[in-house]
Amino acid sequence: MARHTFLRNSTSYWLWLLLAAVVVVADQFTKVLIVSTYALSKGFSVTSFFNIVRVHNEGAAFSFLATAGGWQRWLFTGLGLVATTVMVWMLKKHPSQKLFGFAIACILGGAIGNVIDRVLYGYVVDFLDFHHAGIHFPAFNVADSGITLGAMCLILDEVLRVRRGH
What we know:
A hairpin with a 2-residue loop joins strand 3 and strand 4 (135-136). The chain has one domain (3-165). Strands 1-2-3-4 form a four-stranded antiparallel sheet. By secondary structure, it is an alpha+beta fold. It has four helices and four strands.
C-alpha cells in the first residue's frame, strides 16, 4: 500500500471516530439539559405534534423488555459494548468508504450515548416526543436519531453497492 493511501485511510478512520464522538457529545449534552431541567414525565409542547418531555426507557427500542426486572440493563449494555467493538473494527477495516463510514460512525455514536446512560442511570433518557391524534410515537433522543440515520445510510450504501455490482 502506498504511503499516501495509508495516510488517507488513517485520516478517514480518525474522522469517522470524531463524527461518532460528536454524536456522543450532542447526545449527552442534550440529556444533561433535560435531566437538569425537567422532572420525570415533565416537559413542554413545542408544536401541536411535538413535545419535549423527560422519559426513562429501561428497555431497548420501543421499550422492548422495559419491565424485565433489571437484568436487561446489563444485557443491553453488554450488547452495546460488543457492537461498539465491532463497529470500531469495521471503521478501521474500511475507512475510505464514505457512506459506509458515515453510517457506522452515526450508529457507533448513538450506541455509545445510550450505553453511557445505561451505566450511569440504569435507563436511557429520552425526550423527543412526536404525536398525532392522541397517538404518541415512542420518545427518543439524539443517540437514537444517530442510530436511525446511520441505519438508513447503511441500507442505502448496500443498495448502491448491489447496483454497482450489476
